[in-house]
Design a protein that fits this description.
There is one protein chain. The chain is an all-beta fold. About 0% of the residues lie in helices and about 35% in strands. Strand 9 and strand 10 form a beta hairpin.
Length: about 425
């Protein structure tokens, strides 16, 4: 089974679902449409964007985080409906007030549902959070519990706050606020079997985690690699930060440590870092706070338990405080080259297109398209265009669009390297 976290692209921001009536048409990103809906428990319900999940086989799930049970308590629920008859198949619901069951949903490739509910309460403990698997054809009815969900054990663990789908078809949950005993916010990253889900507590036996308070493993997010493995970014780990390559089959458990992670040389170096998966299975890390905010971009080998650090010898980097190399993001082009946006470099910014093998030098005007006072490089997204990168600026009244690639141009942006007056 393959989980998809992209829930649904609605053609409108809200839909009124009326009993047995065609109240509105909802079109999925794949072009399927639902011409009518039944009411949720016979009551007209206003459904916001991303609260409807249309499954590959046509059934659909509706998440209603404010749904009230028979006692009038707002526990939240996920209703699964037959895509043809619009008859209710099952209802899975929360137990306590403000559980907000159904906060997020993802789809299994053969049409199942993973429900993420970080606000779920259990054992009288608030916001332990839960991840609940539902068969997309047969459904699953009942109340969220330890026997049908992966869950936290301490107040504010908030299991289900972040989820990532792997290319292998499994899923990974990041729980940066997970507590281990008397150690708060050690963080945990837990692999979930795409065929059966997982039940029971998040624990050291099923998760990648830390042994120290406030390390918040997984707080920087998860990058799904092309070979099915994944990279875990923990920006707070030991105040330095860490990137850990984990196995896509669930075998990577235990503590994040020097022996299984890439660790920067200085405290704070991985603050505000981001990961970009690459086509060859490796992952690029942009660390704009590296070395007193000079910034660096490096490529980490996508092999499980890769170790190392980020230095001037293996990264494109800045040379001055505040250069922030990579702060604007990294994009892989069709050629395999990396386009790196550094809006703060040299006060006016730079765009660098470079092969991964060339990440061993400082950003300068000999290898980058650099901004000027009249045409500064903007803070924004790079747009890939084949083997080239496009950057657009409208700042200071100097509107322009410029492209650069492995063959240049480099140097200052001027009338020969940009389309002006846009």
């Amino acid at each position: 089974m393959r989980f998809r976290l992209t829930v649904l692209a609605l053609t409108m921001t809200a839909v009124t679902i009326s009993a047995r009536s065609a109240a509105a048409e909802v079109t999925t990103e794949t072009g399927r449409s639902l011409d009518s809906f039944v009411a949720v428990e016979g009551v007209e319900t206003r459904v916001q964007e991303n609260e409807i999940l249309v499954l590959a086989h046509g059934n659909y799930a509706i998440a209603s985080t404010g749904w009230q049970n028979a006692d009038g308590v707002s526990v939240g629920a996920v209703h699964l409906y037959d895509g043809r008859s619009h008859e209710l198949i099952s209802r899975m619901e929360g137990r306590f007030d403000s559980d907000q069951f159904g906060a997020k949903m993802s789809e299994g490739g053969d049409g199942n549902v993973l429900v993420l509910s970080p606000g779920v309460n259990m054992f009288g403990i608030p916001n332990v959070g839960a991840a609940t698997w539902i068969d997309g054809r047969l459904g699953r009815s009942g109340v969220v519990s330890p026997t049908n969900s992966l869950h936290g054990s301490s107040p504010e663990d908030r299991v289900g706050s972040q989820g990532t789908v792997l290319t292998s078809g499994h899923a990974v949950l990041s729980t940066p606020r997970w507590d281990h005993g008397d150690r708060n916010d050690v963080g945990a990253v837990t692999w979930i079997d795409g065929d059966r889900g997982m039940t029971g507590p998040v624990s050291p036996f099923n998760s990648l985690y830390s042994t120290m308070s406030s390390d918040r493993v997984g707080d920087g997010g998860i990058a799904a690699l092309t070979d099915g493995d994944y990279a875990v970014l923990s920006t707070s780990w030991r105040s330095f930060g860490a990137v850990t390559i984990a196995s896509g089959d669930g075998r990577t458990t235990g503590p994040v440590e020097l022996a299984n992670s890439v660790i920067p040389p200085r405290a704070g170096d991985f603050g505000a870092a981001t990961l970009t998966p690459l086509a060859d299975g490796d992952v690029a890390i942009a660390a704009p706070q590296w070395n007193d905010r000079a910034g660096a971009v490096s490529v980490i080998e996508g092999t499980v338990a890769t170790t190392g650090t980020v230095t001037t010898e293996n990264s494109l980097h800045g040379t001055g405080t505040g250069d922030g190399v990579g702060s604007g993001g990294v994009v892989e082009l069709e050629t395999g080259a990396l386009a790196i946006l550094s809006p703060s470099w040299g006060s006016h910014g730079a765009v660098t297109v470079i092969e991964p093998s060339g990440l061993d030098r400082p950003v300068d005007a000999t290898n980058s398209l650099v901004g000027t006072t009249d045409a500064p490089v903007p803070l924004g997204e790079l747009t890939p265009l084949g083997g080239r990168a496009v950057v657009v600026s409208n700042s200071f009244g100097a509107g322009f669009a410029a492209t650069t690639g492995l063959d240049g141009p480099v140097g200052e942006i001027d009338s020969t390297t940009a389309l002006t007056g846009i």
